[in-house]
Design brief:
ten-stranded antiparallel sheet; 10 strands; globular
């Protein structure tokens, strides 16, 4: 089976992202900027370490991680979380984020396909779905 994880992806669709960010406690201005941004995500792998770079009009961020190892992350909206990434199926990555300092826990599942990436995130009962196209 092909490894579809590494690649460059441009967001093309987003659904319910404002409600998702609001439930996380993200402020109004940051939510509005986040809703107008269609980021490019680049994922690479070097031996057993992944790098995920997210570039948007608002902010560029980068995180490095190994599967199954917890790491500190500052999310795109500025929250500090303890994250763990794991593969739950071929080409499906689970991102568990434990809130710190009273922040809420959330999860994102990334499903990598030949031509696209589907990201489904949840905090409490609020779910957002974001679709990305693989860039050549």
């Amino acid at each position: 089976m092909a490894d579809y994880v590494p690649g460059k992806y441009q967001m093309t669709e987003t659904e319910n992202f404002d409600e998702f960010m609001a439930r996380l406690g993200v402020g109004f201005i940051t939510r509005k900027l986040g809703n107008q941004s269609y980021p490019v995500v680049t994922i690479s792998k070097e031996v057993d370490e992944y790098t995920m770079k997210t570039e948007s009009l608002v902010k560029t961020s980068e995180m490095k991680f190994k599967l199954g190892e917890q790491f500190e992350e500052i999310t795109g909206d500025g929250r500090k979380v303890l994250s763990t990434m794991s593969m739950t199926a071929p080409n499906t990555m689970l991102h568990q984020m434990l809130g710190t300092d009273g922040g809420k826990d959330s999860i994102c599942t990334r499903e990598f396909m030949a031509e696209k990436l589907k990201v489904v995130c949840q905090v409490e009962e609020v779910v957002t779905t974001r679709m990305y196209e693989r860039k050549k």
